[in-house]
Design a protein that fits this description.
The protein is built from 15 helices and 14 strands. It is of the alpha/beta class. It folds into 2 domains: about 180 residues, Glycogen Phosphorylase B (Rossmann fold); about 200 residues, Rossmann fold. The chain is elongated, with a radius of gyration of 22 Å.
């Protein structure tokens, strides 16, 4: 990472894999058991892809039914939004793998958008996200399929992603594998069909843990069995930071973690104006832009940098966990829109000003310091400046409350591991 005055040398995380450009509609269901209405809808929606996918599935089913799985070790198949270069999802997977490896004889495979990259980063077996025959072979041996963190039951990203995860749950049931959804956020679910699909998934799962109270309430309203559902915390709270942030002395370093979202062309200039004003008032040593999803965030941070004339700006695109921690080290205040930037800020005791583009960001900030959470659609420079003064003037108090909150969240997140461990012991 190279710091220059007003210029940043960019380090990119590049993900290459033969499966990452798979067909975007490869989420078509196959008639496995009940809820045939899902399959009918999928067939009508994606008829042009149906024939090719069913040939693959037919081939895979004939292969997997010819062999028998063994009882030991325990076989886990993890799924989520892995292998797309988003640090938030990779941090959750990293934390979960680290703790489940301590449980004993467990064989784990991960469904990934970039299997080669996932194998290298996490030292785990990985299968291509759209390699349906390979996925079905894994399901034949799997004792449990685990939706590992994130917001899998939502349609804000796209309806296709929700349909894909429903398909995996159907596959798990086809092969009598248990289904666990761990540390989940629920919603938004804008479509009536999405709500029906989420209701099916929640009623089908053997264990559900939710990362916040809001998601728990939505899950119960959708019909999740209350005896199978628990409120825990995000899996990233299992991580142990290698440092705590230190108070500012003279000049301050401000961390920024933005993302592309609706009206970002309005929000970015407001952030730039606020930072320029703070620099004139207090003196800013450096603005450090931290890209949690480098391929998506880099151009947003470049646009911010263009608006910070005369200031020292660094754009960080970490490729490994220790590089991500290094990006955060030395930051005194963090302005962020990324959920896992908020979480890492809390873990290191860094005061945070959150720009909430999604209820998941609001949920965690309202549990810590709701006044430091600004709605994305309403944010302006004056709001940021006011809260920046608060963060600097009351730094010690905010630092202490952030660490205290993170400690409680860590204990809550450990329940995810405990519940999975207990479930595996009881079911194996």
């Amino acid at each position: 990472m190279v710091v220059t005055s007003g210029v940043a040398r960019i380090h990119r995380t590049v993900v290459h894999d033969e499966h990452i450009h798979a067909h975007p509609h490869a989420t078509v269901g196959v008639h496995i058991a009940h809820d045939s209405w899902i399959v009918d809808w999928l067939d009508n929606r994606h008829a042009h892809f149906k024939h090719h996918l069913r040939e693959n599935i037919s081939q895979a089913v004939s292969i997997v039914k010819s062999s028998n799985s063994t009882s030991t070790p325990i076989h886990l198949l993890l799924f989520g939004y892995f292998g797309f270069g988003n640090w938030g999802d990779e941090l959750m997977l990293m934390a979960f793998l680290e703790h489940t490896r301590r449980l004993g004889a467990i064989d784990t495979a991960v469904i990934s958008g970039a299997p080669k990259w996932t194998r290298k980063l996490h030292n785990v077996r990985a299968i291509g996200r759209f390699n349906i025959p390979a996925i079905l072979r894994e399901f034949q041996h799997a004792d449990c399929a685990i939706g590992c963190g994130g917001s899998l039951l939502q349609d804000a990203t796209s309806l296709r992603s929700l349909l894909y995860y429903i398909m995996l749950i159907k596959f798990a049931r086809c092969f009598n594998a248990k289904v666990l959804l761990i540390a989940q956020g629920i919603g938004p679910l804008k479509r009536r069909l999405s709500q029906r699909l989420a209701r099916y998934a929640l009623k089908t799962c053997d264990l559900i843990t939710l990362r916040d109270e809001r998601s728990f309430q939505i899950a119960i309203e959708l019909g999740a069995p209350i005896n199978n559902a628990r409120v825990t915390a995000d899996l990233a709270f299992l991580l142990a930071p290698p440092f705590q942030c230190t108070p500012p002395k003279n000049d301050i370093t401000i961390g920024v973690a933005l993302r592309q979202w609706q009206s970002h062309n309005r929000v970015v200039p407001e952030v730039a104006t606020a930072l320029s004003h703070i620099n004139n008032q207090m003196g800013v040593k450096q603005v450090r832009c931290i890209s949690f999803h480098p391929t998506a965030d880099e151009h947003i941070h470049r646009a911010l940098m263009d608006g910070l004339e005369g200031m020292t700006v660094e754009i960080c695109c970490p490729q490994k966990l220790h590089q991500l921690w290094q990006c955060i080290k030395g930051v005194h205040v963090l302005i962020c829109a990324r959920l896992h930037a908020v979480i890492l800020g809390l873990l290191t005791g860094t005061p945070i000003i959150a720009l909430s583009y999604d209820p998941k960001v609001s949920a965690i900030m309202h549990a810590w310091q709701p006044e430091l959470c600004l709605e994305w659609s309403e944010v302006n420079a004056e709001m940021i400046i006011e809260r920046m003064h608060w963060c600097i003037d009351d730094w010690e108090h905010l630092h202490a409350t952030a660490l205290s909150f993170a400690h409680r969240a860590h204990l809550a997140s450990m329940q995810n591991v405990t519940l999975v461990s207990q479930y595996l012991e009881c079911s194996h």
